[in-house]
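Minutes, project check-in

Agenda point 3 was the complex the collaborators sent over. CS summarized: three entities, 1045 residues total, and the question is how they sit relative to each other. Sequences were read into the notes so everyone works from the same version.
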Amino acid sequence: MAQLEFNDVTKMYGDIVAVKDISLTISDNEFFCIFGPPSCGKTTLLRLLLGLVQQDTGSVLIGGKDVTEVGPQERDLAMVFQNLALFPHMTAYENLAFPLVERKVSKADIKARIGEVAETLHITPLLKKIPAHLSGGERQRVAIGRALVRDPAAFLMDEPIAALDARLREEMRVELKRLQRELNHTLVYVTHDQEEAMSIADRMAIMEDGRIRQVGTPDEIYNHPNGRYVAELIGSPPMNFIDGAFDGASKRFSAGDFEMSIGFEGVSASGAASIGVRPEDFRVTSGGGAEIEFDANVYEVEPLGGFTIVDCNIGEKVLKVQIPGQPTFELGQAIKLGFDSKRAHLFDGPSGDVLASAA
Amino acid sequence: MTEQTVETGAKKKPAMLQHEIEAKRLGLYMSLPAQLLLAFIVAFPFLMQVYISLTWWGPLDGTLWTLAYESMNWFGQYGEIFQDGRFWGSIGRTFAILGIAVPIEFLLGLGLAMLFVQKFPGRPIFYSIMLTPMMIVPAVTGLMFFLLFQGTGPINDMLGLPQNYSWLQDINRSMITIIIADVWQWTPLMFLILLAGILGVPEDQLRMASILGAGKWTSFVRIVLPKMKTVMIIALVIRVVESFKIFDTVYIMTRGGPGVATETISLYIYKMTFADLEWSYVAAMGLFILVALSLLAVLGMWQMSAAQKRQKAMMSAES
Amino acid sequence: MATIELKSLTKQFGQLLAVNSLDLLIPDRKFVALLGPSGCGKTTTMNMIAGIESASDGEILFDGNNVRTLPARQRGVGFVFQNYAIFTHMTVYENLAFGLRSRGMKGPEIEKKVTDMAELMRLTDRLHWPSARLSVNEMQKVAIGRSAVTEPAIFLLDEPLSNLDAAFRAFMRTELKHLQHQFQQTMVYVTHDQIEAMSLADMIAVMNLGVLQQYGTPIEVYNRPNNTFVANFMGSPSMNLLDATIGGGDGSTRIEFPGGGQFEVNDEDLLRRCKSATTGAIKFGARPEDIALEPSGHTGDGVKAKVNFVEPIGPRTIVHLAVGEEIIKVVVPKGSGFELGSDVKAVFPKGKCHIFDAETGNAIGLE
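CS then shared the predicted structure for the full assembly.
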């Protein structure tokens, strides 16, 4: 159980930036998610931790110690790969035993340790089977088990449940969270599924093009994104943006033929800006009831059972609104949309930085 | 990549780590015996060959090869090559054999491979039978066809030809027998490689082609063949290089005769070496062929990279 | 017209019965999803419709004509494989043109159709690129475009969005829907993601282990599941299914949970269902978004529970509650504070409860 640190780490492959100026501290016993689109550098960070690649500048610390000179075998980290990399010719038991056999642990100790881990992961009845005879979810657990038997300083996982069915993924992520809590290990978890990251992380880092955009708890990231990029990336359906201009003095926002008074208290400057409102923060009102209200037409309705997504247009723009339950709408129906300025964000036009965030 | 192109603040790449240095050193020590052996077996004879090729030395001179420099004449032997009619004749004959045999092997191999793609009863057995010719020692193949093509042999018998109808002693027909023997022996190799190539074509793409309306022939020409390009090139290169060196079969069947009618380059070199004992000439010939073939290979690779560059330029122009 | 009718369609792979006597009618120009977990037979069914997998038994009818013996290339359907199966040795243009060329169309006409499709799929910039160099998202567009350009009446898609990143997936969902409306095609769509199916489909066919479980509109299948499999599979998070017994006597009907909780049934709909039950052993179902969480003392049909785990996932928060030995999930709006370990009451809403036979899994009293 150890703290992991990156200090000013950069890694380039020729002219291509893999990761740049990464400074990050992952606390002991933390479930930390690294989230970002493909090729943002998240896998590179894991490899830097593991020692499979060497950083160009900066240092990587495990448990406070600089591990630049330490080879991958000595770093005491356990890894679960996306493709699991289970040994196909060995049974689940032998797969689990492998890391311990390599480290010359006694047979009795191996048996005891595997017994414990198998019990925790509910795979005890599967130990005699080979990977080909196991289902996707079972293989996943064996792969995780193989990492668990070692009791390392930290666990690293690279999209370990990405390949599973939607239903199984939901179950597995609760299991993983529970496991991590129970075993009290530091876990660094890479994923491109934002719902997954939000659900299981204690804290998460959002990456783009090799740089960290924001680090924080899921709540902080969701409710207080530091810029348009993060705001757009997290949340499904994504946040709605209305581009226009904001006048800091009169507190009026205008976008084409659309104007509103909106009280972003802390913002006194004026210029090109965008308002961001999440789909669930809009309400379909019937006149009165919301601080800010305007007319819209229903463009498309997606009833998803537990909630419904309604695409509405105001002029040229389409906004997505999420409403609980199964309300009915006609295509083309005129409705009134409302939201509270407390739930809205304001982003600077050119840079995308957040100017005002939801309360 | 120089430090100037790295963005602000980047320092020099760290010096190699201790464990990396040790790993490299260990690698060096462990491969040293093998490297020395290779040096002895490969480099030494090669250098010896180059040395001798620059002289007039031969075993009949009576001196040790190390003293060959006494008859040094630099590129004289190479000059001889250009004037040697028999040399060029043998090169021509070798190309003739390959130029006919290899395409036949290729087409036959491809045809057979296509037949073997679908499962049919007894396929594994036929597959083993198909591969046997390849596994027979070429000299034995030579002996087999030697016997078959005898005037009094079974082929004349089956074709109803008179017993004095000669194959192996006829100036034209002897070439035909060599080609037949080569095709018989090596078609299985083409078959093997091309079958692997066909089976390597992704099945989903073939299914998709069929859904889009392509018949079996269209699918073969537009999906299977293009995807086999690399495999086909490999098969052809392997066969061309090997058949250039053809020796055993020819030697047993005709000894290069009648006269020089079937004398391939390797047979000519053999005779020059062991019959005429013109060792420095042979050394020069060997190196000449090596250089010529290498130049051809370089030319081929240069063409390929030029094609790739053209493609990249096209892509960046469009994006 | 392009209706697809499957009659007793069966596929056997040696010992494995992949598709078991499937009867399904896919109406003209409707978007139908074949939904189910891995191995349920949905891809095999679609492969049989396309003709790339032969049926062991049964009939496949396009507009009443049996096409079962017709080879794939004569069926005139569009198809998108899960891994796209792009012709990687050809350019984007050649991929898009392939189907048209195979049908003997001439150069200038092909060029028009291909450039139009490229524009529609926003691939014009990539038209002469080697297709192997495209990004995953672009390959997907080519996979769709190359079938769409042949203007098939029937379009089959096998989990086409599963390899895409979340943002692009949401975008493509809308695009697919528009494509289908624009070209008026009958679309059959295989997926294991029930949200995708609900969002896109006019009708959903839920399958499990080769057998059709339920066929209806998304809302029907969601609101009125006819067995526990469908009930559990639809909805994210899935419906809570608790072991229970119908008890009572002395005039009242009660639902009792083994862990000790119980409540009196006052809801008319639920009462009617309980009364029509032939067995006492049931599974009681209520969806997470339908359950209300109230302070422990609240009145109303419900049970006492303890907060076990809290999962905030952005717009909503999922609260895990321990009811006796079982765990149920409840969806609450974001920001509502629930303390781990606190006691609450889970209130079951009127008209939204389900009961299923504990042994067979079938719904009880479904109208």
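Noted in discussion: The longest helix of chain B spans residues 279-318.
Follow-up: revisit at the next meeting once the mutant set is ready.
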